[in-house]
Write a structure and sequence with these properties.
Blueprint: H1 2-6, E1 10-12, E2 20-22, E3 33-38, E4 44-48, H2 55-63, E5 72-77
Parallel strand pairs: 3-5
Antiparallel strand pairs: 1-2, 3-4
């Protein structure tokens, strides 16, 4: 799985039972993404996030001298099948 992560085919995701989700957006370049992780069944979905939606977070990181290379957000909750 770590090789898939290095090539951009998978992402390590906090809260996911097996820790990884397949990349479904773009394998060609880093991209901001949101991972929706079901706390019941463990399924996860990658959803694109416009860089503008992450603006305040990236600005705050920059104020602390941090240069962001890739931004990802993980949300934990219940998927449509488990609700």
């Amino acid at each position: 799985l770590s090789e898939l992560e290095e090539t951009g085919l998978a992402h390590k995701v906090a809260g996911k039972k097996d820790g990884y989700v397949l990349c479904t957006i773009s394998r060609a370049e880093p991209h901001p993404a949101m991972h929706l992780v079901c706390s019941s069944c463990g399924c996860a979905e990658e959803v694109p996030v416009p860089r503008s939606a992450l603006g305040e977070i990236l600005t705050q990181a920059g104020r602390h001298g941090f240069e962001t290379e890739l931004a990802a957000v993980s949300l934990s909750g219940l998927c449509t099948h488990c609700r």
